[in-house]
Predict the structure.
Amino acid sequence: MEVQTLLIGRIEECDYIVYDTLNRVSRKHALLIKEDNNLFIQDLGSSNGTFLDGRQIKPNVRVPLKPQNKITLSRDYELDFQKIRFPDLLQGNRRGLQEKDDQTILMSNSSIELNSGGKTILFDRNNARMEDLSKHEVNKFKSFGRASTCDIKLESPTVSKSHLNIRLLTSVIFEIEDLNSTNGTYVDGEKLLPNKRYQFSSSAQVRIGNNLNLDLKKYFPEIIVLEKKAIAPPPSKQLPPTNTIDSTSEELKQFKELENVWKEYNSRLNQATSTATGFGIGGAVLGLAASVFTGGVAGILLMSGGGILGRYLGQKESNKIRGDLTFEDAFLEVYACPRCKESFQKKPWITIRECFKCKTKYR
Ligand SMILES: [Zn+2]
């Protein structure tokens, strides 16, 4: 007979960690037990109880489960036990299978599920924060620098003794921190602020100082480098004559909304990542990109809450998985001339007077 148990609760040592911000779920709430092909639930004397089809079960007693049963932890935290996966026993020690590409993040309307090193961590999508999420990352930072104590030693006068840290969050997202280096760290040409953590899609190019490009694939063989998607200009309609034309009131309104897009984009870049700040995954700051692996197909899902860019991404979400769209792509697509849809690229909103392509004047 084969018996497997999964500990469900709020604390680290659980196999199935529920990030319940309302604390309805106890630290060690229940056990899900699999005996051959039969499932059982056992409440561990939790504060708010475990309910089977609306009726509280006795603590410390195994109760058999049928597929149609509905379990809630406390009265209203639904536990979809059918979806819970038991780690594969054949793989041996669970700790042993912390392969780097084992991390996946799955999202639904209400939750974010992080699978990492054989554990499942469930976040409430509206209340989860990046700092919670990154706390569970199993990948350690690799340090880059001239000093021999660095994980990756780089022999170049451009490089500081201790220059930067990089780690993979998923196969397609890395996190990077410049360690107050002398010559700086650049990503896609933009200089990072020192001692702040940033996350980028694997398509981003990391550069040390002015001319030393880092080949991430060399240091992180497991990284899946996404191709940078060129933003194709929309099929050009008839372009208006080149003399400057005033925008209509509707276009002007749309243009003004772009100020928020710009702000959202910047807040994402600037504060997304300082772990101290943390940010709401469903909240104002957006663009948590997650890799979703289904049948070997890697995709990127962008999620977000409020804001115009958020709404835009929300629409994109209806296509379920957009494997080709990164946060930055989305920004570049949205941050565009209301008339001809030409992207304003990364020009600060406040500096845009007119569209350089169709010459529509916005101020
Ligand atoms: Zn234009």
